[in-house]
Records
---
Amino acid sequence: MGSRRMVLLLIGVAGFLAAWLIQLEPTQLFGKAQWHQLGVFFQAALSPALTYEDGAVVPEGLFLMEIAEALYKTLIYTAAAISLSLVGGLVFGFLGSAKAWLSLAAPGHVWGRALSAIALTGHFFVRTVMTVLRSVHEIVWAILFLQALGAENLAAVFAIAIPYSATLGKVFSELIDEAPRAAAGALRDNGASPVQVYVFGLLPAVIPDLLAYLLYRFECGLRSAAVLGFFGAPTLGSYLSLSWGERHYHEVWAYLYALLALIVAFDFWSGAVRRRLTVGLES
Amino acid sequence: MSEHSTQLEAVAELRRARPRDRFLRVGLSCFALLLAASWFTGEFGIREFDWERRWANCERFLSRVVPFPMQEHPEASFAEKLGLAGGWLLDRWRESGAEAFRYTLGLSVVAIVFAGVASLVSLPLASRRLATASPLVPPHRELPAWQRWLWRLIGQGCRFLLVLARSVPEYMIAFFLVVALGFNAWPAVLALAIHNAGILGRLGSELVDNMPSAVPVSQRSLGAGRWQIYAFGAVPSLFSRFLIFFFYRWETCVRDATVLGMLGIPTLGYYLLEARAKDHLDEMLFFVALGSVTVLIGDLLSAFVRWRLERTS
């Protein structure tokens, strides 16, 4: 038996074992009266609400404004969180890739020895910290912040920014470790300090990749920010769960379509940016 | 001196000739502006942030996340405290930790297997190369217009479905499905499977679209159909790279499975919220830490497998 078949078989066996472990049974999927409610919910998909479903209570026409507000808040929270993550990610990326730029430091340079000793221990430490920060989900961070600080809009921003900084830092440092070294080496031989080598020799080469990844994280951030609405942030999820609680399924679909439109639009735009960034590199 | 100035001139010339793209400049400037402007919307109220009260809150929080027996015996020596904490940890693990850990990992494995199967099936239909009326080589004869349109529809439609699948947050899918399916693993499994099938389908179809054309083109000229090209040309040569994506997504599945429990499905998140509801903050932190450990184990396993795969491929 070939190794590919072996791997597929192993994965299949693992899947069955895991299904048995969590007592997953196909019968759980059928024969539930609740399917009816989900059916009602999916029927509402065909006619998303344009006004409030109980128009008698609130004046009409404001619902579209509310959707706009939900999208605006989601966008603002994502932007704030991503701007913090960018700073955090650059710092983490700088420290985490210490190995790459210190190996480039000119032998016998004034800073050389002492700095490399500190940085190499720091390098290991920073990578461990990044892994741990990343391993806690942003929703869990949000709950921790709510408990520790009390209700606070900044809590949601920090909740996203912490794991995202670590993820960005990891990818940044990996990109920098794999960046071409020719320019950096030339700078070093002309007496540049390690920091100068890093900023002018290594960083410019990875900026397009770095940007592309940042845009991808922004898209993930939109999803995270929307979901944090279920946990007290004033983003799209909070509007959606209110409508859901009142069984206003047409409103729910309106919010859902709005979120999808935002994310898909951003996806198309960032896809175009990514293509152009790489074209710029090749020419 | 003149040599120096010609060099400067050459640098200026290079600078003028650098690739410039208005779309990129305007777009990325707007993006940067958005990031900066978000802080000036007044949404986050940094100025009215009451540091003193927040710090008091924080201190109270920190004093209560310490394991309960340690809170009860502040006079105990360090070694005794360590013993108390160890016993407490073991109790938590036996009581519900082990079960939650097993359930979370199991759920993530089932979900990623479903996602993998779904994406393997949808991938050739989403590939720009294979999902055309005449894949890879021009047709021998003029194809009827409906065939070309049909395949364009299938390709575009499938790609759009994959975009939709990965655009909806998995938490929201599970949130809706819980109503119909109840508090068992299915809502979480399906939510994770749908979201990740969308991502794996995109990554996989990019692999197919970027693979060297020698094998598929020769297969095609020998008369193979698109499913044959896919199953016997693309899959074997892209196998390990697809597996790398598969394991990378499994990591995130583990991470997301922990929080999907907050919808009432018994993964770690469920126990975390339960502890919070009982106001047992020490127990809550235990489940945060256990979740972190679970994710780290997933990361390590996946990193090991990917390292092996990268070495062989």
---
Amino acid sequence: MNAPSRLVGSTQPPPRHASLLEALGRAAEHPSGLTFVDASEAEETLSWSEVLARARATAGALRRLGVFPGDRVAIVLPTAPDFMDAFFGALLAGAVPVPLYPPVRLGRLEEYHRATARMLQLSGAVLVLTDGLIGRLLGQAVAAARPRLGCHRVSKLREAGDVPHEASVAPDALAVVQFSSGSTVDPKPVALSHANVMAQVETIRALMPVREGVRPLGVSWLPLYHDMGLIGCLVSAVAYPGPLVLLRPEQFLARPALWLRALSRHRGTVSAAPNFAYALCVRRIRAEELEGVDLSSWALALNGAESISAEVARRFVERFGPYGFDARALVPAYGLAEASLAVTFAPSRATLRTLSIDAHALAAEGQVRPGERTLVSVGRPVPGAEVEIRGESGEVVPARTVGRIHVRGPSVMVGYLGQPEATRAVLVDGWLDTGDLGFVAEGELVVSGRAKDVIILRGANHVPQEFEEALEGLEGVRTGCAVALGTIPQGAEGEVLVLLVELSPDPPADLADRIRTRVLERTGIRPHSVELLLPGTLPRTSSGKLRRREALRRWQTGTLTPPRKVRWLGLAGAMVKSAVALARAERDP
Amino acid sequence: MASEADVLDAIRSIAQSELEVERPVQPGDDLLADLGLDSLGLTVLAVGLENRFRVKLSQEDAVGVRTVEDLAKLVVRRSGASA
């Protein structure tokens, strides 16, 4: 009999600060601060004492406007000094910052307005802080959500000449609200207390590699409306305290070399990113962009927020080893917004620990057997955290058996803000049901899939309805009979979007193409595969609800077949054409 | 001020070297339906053009921009406005 799947992290180090405000106060005594890098690699620096002084001025204005302790203040800003004024200003006013994603260039405004309005409503934000450029685009969202104190440019507030202010807060007061996914469908506002956040950053600090005489220096391009960028990088740097170099996410995407060049220039020691970012570096950085680049100072390259590909990691090491990148720096991690951020970290190793398992046995029976699919171990619980793998009836399962990953620890969220029912569904007796599936092997956690209906693409969480609703009204699609799923095909660099769609009579011949274009237009995501199915093929519950995970399991195991009674000769032609389209799309993903 | 031909060249170069678009890029190509650009692709293209031509594009620019030519004309207009 295998040992039960229960892993316990080492003792949580005592938090040095009771709140983020206290941490910022201490950081202001430290000579380091924030450096902002622009597209041409010009830099602007703000010391922590400047960050504090600017935040105090902003807090004074927020108070004058009528922001009270505990009020939520939404922030829609790019990575820039303005963001810091808004974030720390809201905190010093005793309020709770809610960072939301700024609009994407050339993206669809309509969807953005709806999603932003929804998140403003759910967070109960009393006020929105932004800048002139974005402010012009927020009109509709603000008009729909009607925050009590309106929408303001943070630079105007900071410069208004109010008496600087600094509130004091209790450790169990809310510190920040972060959304676990950002769409119109069911976004969940994750409420974290100061104690949650301070415990998390203390944990991260305990895991920082120590090199004699070297001070940690962080470099990040991660969005600040996401746990890994906000808590893992920004708040960690405040609490440490130490220097942090920030790039804008969109600048990284446009030119990934900026990230590695900043690490080299500043002798960065810590930087984290999702799997796709490492793949992007291998694919898109040219040799001439790396002239003189030296990555030998990079001691901790965390890889988290989405499934980790051992192959991508191997290629990254192979490509950047000659520039001094140390393979042992690459550390897989697992976490989620509901746990503040990190749950497990892998130990530093020369090559990642992987398991080759049988994907069919895993999907069909939840058993871990040797096979072809490679999974990467994400290590052991971080200090203060406990992990259990539980079966259907809540019992802890034996090692090498798949179950739902549960987490307990001081960084686990207070709950979903204003959603007691949703909170009770995932948080029982301090244990958080992550909705992820995994197993324990050789004393470490391996994440193998997901029980919740979430699709993680490039480190961002999406709910399936986002894609399914995009198909509404499309001729040839059976109404309400489509499922969107995330899966990792053999040999792919990461998770991809798959659509399983039931047909209505007389579908157009190029339906698969039309589905692709529609989803791309509405969501900005390109489906990897579109599978057209005869009516009644998708599995449903007795009440008629679509069973997405079961559909995925059947699709993966080749058992997704139409009911025998369906006979539509007219469909044959369309099926052949769509099969051709599918084959073409797979050649050119 | 940038000419439309300059911007078209830049779009072709970004499409080829950064976005792995294999087909030859024509002015009439639809950014989504023909080039298949997703939100990452659009960001890479928009930011690449911003950096090259020192202009600012925003989300509201998506209104009325469907093709490569629409985008090139927009960048020309912006670069004229800021010059």
